[in-house]
Amino acid sequence: MKSLLLTFGSLALTAGVVANAYMQNKQFYPSVVYITKSSPSMAVLYVQAFVCVILMGKLMRKIFFGQLRAAEMEHLIERSWYAVTETCLAFTVFRDDFSPRFVALFTLLLFLKCFHWLAEDRIDYMERSPIISWLFHIRALSLLAFLACSDVFFINHAYYHTLIKGASVQLVFGFEYAILLMVLLHIFVKYVLHTVDVQNENPWENKAIYLLYTELLLGFIKVVLYMLFLAIMVKVHTFPLFAIRPMYLTMRVFKKALNDVVMSRRAIRNMNTLYPDATPEELSASDVCIICREEMVSSCKKLPCNHIFHKSCLRSWFQRQQSCPTCRMDIIHSPRPQSPQAAQPAAPAAPPQQPPVPPFPAAAFPGFPAAFPGAAWPPQHPPASSSASVASSTSTTTTSFSTSASTSDTANNPFMPGMMPPMPFMPPFMMPPMSFGMSPPPVPPADFSGLTDEELRAMEGEERENLEARVQCLRNIHTLLDAAMLQIQQYTTVVSRMGGLDTASTSTVWSAERPTASAMSSKSSNIATSNSSDPMMAAPNPVDTSNKPDDSEVLEGAVGYTVPTETVLPSGESGAAQQDSEDSSELGEIRRRRLEKFSNKMQEQAKTDNNGGTPD
Amino acid sequence: MAGSALKRLMAEYKQLTLNPPEGIVAGPVDEENFFEWEALITGPEETCFEGGVFAAKLTFPSDYPLSPPKMKFTCDIFHPNIYSDGRVCISILHAPGDDPMGYESSAERWSPVQSVEKILLSVVSMLAEPNDESAANVDAAKTWRDNRARFNEIAHQTVRKSLGL
Ligand SMILES: [Zn+2]
Ligand SMILES: [Zn+2]
What residue stretches are annotated with the UBC core domain (chain B) (predicted)? Predict the structure, then answer.
């Protein structure tokens, strides 16, 4: 209403000015001269021009976007605010060139910038909406074409202007439009990728990768452009303060893209090398991928904790965090460095009779830890390889276990032989999950009575052979831990196989694996504390307890709500998304009915509350 | 095929409409944009919020199951774990590594295993059992700890307000 009034006001004023000029001069040319000479008339005309620009903007918005969404509007206002501030800063640099034409050019730049932002928001919206109409595509394409033309035109113009007349404010415009062109290119690539994705029947795994690399490349070009701009501006004029903020933002985006690419590459590498593909039996046993809630048919990976996910889902998750989405087992650190970590609690527990050993290497032998990763710890790889064999079948696990045990240390190990045998033959099938969770299986001997005095003596002192003896001792412990690890894997495989039949037992598998994870990643003595020191959501809650099985509740203390219902999606319905979009109207109906019912119930409740509770 | 975030949200929505948990309604505000949801939560029984219907807005990021949504009550609610502007502060809504209160272990944080339903159930239990150790609204936490009668009174007022009385 206010803007309408303003529009008409300015229109009336302009008409008045023009009419007045014409009345006084009676001819076209003199009236033009008259108007340009009179400052009040010119002021009115400037206001009119401004109003025209805004009207033009509204018209174009109507054509290319239709109604703007609230989020888009918010975004636009926030960004324009910064842009206006920066433009004002730019004015201070170029105060010599200051002229109406100059202001007009900046306004135009701002205007086009707004449309670039809106286009970006609109294209991003493609990912969010289930319905993309033809109108959307037509609008998007024509807008992109229009913006590209204007960008190229202005870059061209700035280029020739600078060639002919030397460095001027056109430099700024040239760079601004070059940056905008890059933004536009990015938007276009996104548009193409989204469109292809929407047309495709199957999820497009590599889309995220393409997006990432596009962002990296264009981010790099933008950073280079800004650097160039900065250098030229410092040389020709002065330090361009107004370009600092966008430059900083661009660099940050670039850095993030770089980081993402590195993380993504690492994730892919880990995925391909560390984790086995899930076998068809495992796929049929498990129902949905917990990340996307869709059925797992092919290209799935199994983590060391036996949780199975889509390869693509897992990859995008690993870009953020290197842990199992379900049980939060630390994936990167647990298969390998787990050995030194896990050995730590064992070592202090072992040596009460032999003081020199205790505090693991660090302070005592400065040179020592460096040698650890490779040389001193040969059985580093067994965990990975054996976990691969766990995937294939339980029986092979047993054999591969015994081979890894024999290859590593059994030969020169005094107390190992006594320890080893029970483990492969321990029947994992018989152990109920609870007792397992309570007692971490292979406990190293509490005292070293199994060691002879000779062996103990061998470990005392600071000589090389003493060190070697100690390392050997630690290796033995390490092997024990590997064995425990294997057993745990065996165990979880068995449980998941037994539990794969119905969803109810899957949830028990899951909860059974939690203590497993903590047992592996932390000291066994910590299990109790880690479980009890999670107060936040652990508090039993009246709404939920009723429909929760007791045992999972007990085990579940640590995670609060993460317990049960996760995989109850009926398997048939997570299929095609097309179906979903067809169903969405039906869903809307369900929802409306539900809301109606709900609000009726509320009203009833309100009434009773009103009648019974408060008599006022 | 649409983006994975959208598909997952549609799957969750379907699940929620077919098997709605007791006392909770949730769904997209607009069927064309699945990234903004509205939710109605009934105050848990036998608590000071019993009988109230609290409206909240959930905003999902475009990488949804990988990052948590944001939740904000759109009605007045006085609670230790809800900022005075309505934002909900519970551990399940924080990604590991982003820890405004600095006390939460990563085990209770967001991960794709969580869902809208679990968030809302957590919020219900949060209403029932405020956690005054990590107060978002210090005032409310203080009242809850020191002057329970007053807290109950305020809660009762918000319940009446939420019902439009
Ligand atoms: Zn998946
Ligand atoms: Zn796991």
Answer: 4-164
Q: How far is B114 from chain A (nearest CA, A)?
A: 6
Judge whether B74 and B57 are in contact, CB under 8 Å.
yes
Per DSSP, the three-state class of A88 is helix
Proximal ligand: closest to the CA of A314: 1
Query: Which of the residues of B are catalytic?
Result: 89
Q: Which residue has the tokens 């202090």?
A: A348
| Chain B hits for A197, Cβ within 8 Å | 1-3
CATH code of the domain in which B60 resides: 3.10.110.10
C-alpha distances in Å from residue A286, one per residue of A275, A503, A571:
17, 9, 10
**Ligand positioned closest to the Cα atom of A311:** 1
Determine the residue of chain A that is closest to B110 in CA distance. Answer: A325
pTM beyond 0.90: the answer is no
C-alpha distance from B163 to closest chain A C-alpha (Å): 6
Amino acid at B160: R
pLDDT digits (tens, 9 = 90+) for A424-472: 444 444 444 443 444 444 455 555 555 666 666 677 777 777 777 777 7
Write the pLDDT tens digit of every residue in A57-82. 889 889 888 888 888 899 999 999 99
Tell me yes or no: is domain A274-335 CATH 2.60.40.1250.
Answer: no
Of B10, B44, B107, which is closest to A328 when you measure between CB atoms? B107
Alpha helices in A126-169 (DSSP H): 134-165
Report the C-alpha gap between A601 and A612 in whole angstroms: 16
ipTM comes to: 0.84
In chain B, the number of structural domains is 1
Q: Residue A78, exposed/middle/buried by CB under 10 A (0-12, 13-18, 19+)?
A: exposed
Residue B47: domain span: 2-162
